[in-house]
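Inverse folding, one chain.
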């Protein structure tokens, strides 16, 4: 069977020949080609629907695994904190066993900021974010800015 691209090219050529051929033969050929294009489009829609189902299933599995990973990370952190807390309370800095050496250590100093408002300007960074919703509305209402346009795009919808 021909590809949708090939069918489209045949359809265009047939439309170009519309004035040069008899109307009955043209109508039959156009109807046959239209049916082929419709069949091909429907088959592609089935494939797209199957792909969408696979994508949704993968997303659900990703969420399930992400949730499981997050739960394990939290359990890991709680258990590690519990171990640290108990060793500190007991005054033990190191535990040696045939399998592990567990020790308490000092981490690198960390900066703690309790009030952002007291930080001098030279230590602050500003993040630039475009309010696209508001900008789109203003451009629709006549605002002109170089490099900003509203574009009407098309997409395939399958119901």
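Residues assigned per position:
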């Amino acid at each position: 069977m021909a590809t949708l691209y090939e069918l489209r090219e045949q359809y265009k050529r047939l439309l170009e020949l519309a004035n040069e051929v008899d109307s009955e033969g043209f109508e039959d050929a156009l109807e046959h080609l239209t049916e082929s294009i419709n069949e091909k489009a429907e088959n592609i829609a089935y494939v797209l629907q199957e792909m969408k189902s696979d994508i949704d299933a993968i997303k659900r599995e990703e969420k399930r695994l992400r949730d499981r990973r997050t739960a394990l990370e939290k359990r890991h952190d709680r258990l590690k904190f519990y171990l640290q807390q108990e060793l500190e309370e007991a005054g033990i800095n190191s535990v040696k066993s045939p399998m592990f050496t567990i020790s308490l250590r000092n981490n690198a100093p960390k900066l703690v900021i309790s009030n952002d408002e007291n930080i001098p300007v030279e230590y602050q960074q500003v993040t630039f974010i475009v309010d696209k919703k508001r900008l789109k509305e203003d451009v629709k209402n006549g605002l002109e800015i170089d490099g900003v346009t509203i574009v009407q795009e098309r997409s395939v919808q399958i119901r």
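Residues 103 and 153 are 61 Å apart (CA to CA). The mean pLDDT is 91.
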